[in-house]
UniProtKB/TrEMBL annotation:
Transmembrane keyword on record: yes
Stretches that traverse the bilayer: 92-118
Entry superkingdom: Eukaryota
Protein name per the record: Protein toll-like
UniProt keywords, alphabetically: Membrane, Transmembrane, Transmembrane helix
InterPro entries: LRR_dom_sf
Xref: SUPFAM superfamilies: L domain-like
Length: 169
C-alpha cells in the first residue's frame, strides 16, 4: 500500500485536520530514503500515546520536516519536538492525578459536612432525635433485646418478687 512512497521526495500534509498518524505509516516513511521534506504543520495533533511514533521520528530526523517548529499539539503552543513524551504518555502520572483529584474532592466533602455539623450541631441533633435517630449520637449502647416484652424488667430479691423498669439516664 505504501510502495508509492519509495520514490516520493516531498510530502506536504499540512493544514489537513490530522490528529495522529498511525505507527505503520511512520515506520514506512522512516525507511523511505528519498523523503527529504515532510510537512505536517498546522494540524490539530492529539497529544496522547498515539503521537509517540511521530515524536520519535521527528526527534531522530528533524531535518526531514518542513517548518518543524510549527508542528504542535492541539491547544498547545510548545512545538511537538520539544515536548516530553514521558509526561504525555504516562499512565502512572494520569493515575496519580486521578487519585489526587478524587481524594481532594472526598476531603472537601468531608470537610464541608464537618463544618456544617459543627455549626448546626444542636439543630442536627434535634432533627435526629425528632426522627428517631438519636441513638446514633448517644453514648448509650443500643439494646438488641427489644423484641421480648419483659426485657426491661428485672426481678428484685426479697420477700416480694417485683419487677422494675429501667429508664435511660
Amino acid at each position: 500500500m505504501y510502495s508509492y512512497f519509495n520514490s516520493l521526495e516531498k510530502l506536504d500534509l499540512s493544514d489537513n485536520k490530522l490528529e495522529y498518524l498511525n505507527a505503520t505509516f511512520i515506520a514506512h516513511i522512516s525507511t523511505s530514503s528519498n523523503l527529504t521534506g515532510l510537512g505536517l504543520y498546522d494540524n490539530p495533533w492529539s497529544c496522547n500515546c498515539n503521537i509517540t511514533p511521530l515524536h520519535s521520528y521527528m526527534y531522530n530526523n528533524p531535518g526531514k520536516f518542513i517548518n518543524v517548529n510549527r508542528i504542535s499539539c492541539k491547544d498547545w503552543t510548545i512545538p511537538l519536538l520539544e515536548m516530553d513524551m514521558d509526561l504525555i504518555c504516562s499512565s502512572i502520572l494520569s493515575t496519580l492525578i486521578s487519585i489526587s483529584i478524587a481524594l481532594g474532592v472526598l476531603c472537601l466533602i468531608v470537610g464541608i459536612l464537618t463544618l456544617v455539623y459543627l455549626r448546626h450541631r444542636l439543630r442536627v441533633t434535634a432533627w435526629l432525635a425528632e426522627h428517631g435517630v438519636n441513638r446514633v449520637l448517644s453514648r448509650q449502647p443500643i439494646r438488641t433485646d427489644r423484641a421480648k416484652p419483659d426485657a426491661d424488667k428485672i426481678p428484685m430479691s426479697g420477700d416480694k418478687q417485683e419487677n422494675c423498669i429501667l429508664l435511660p439516664d
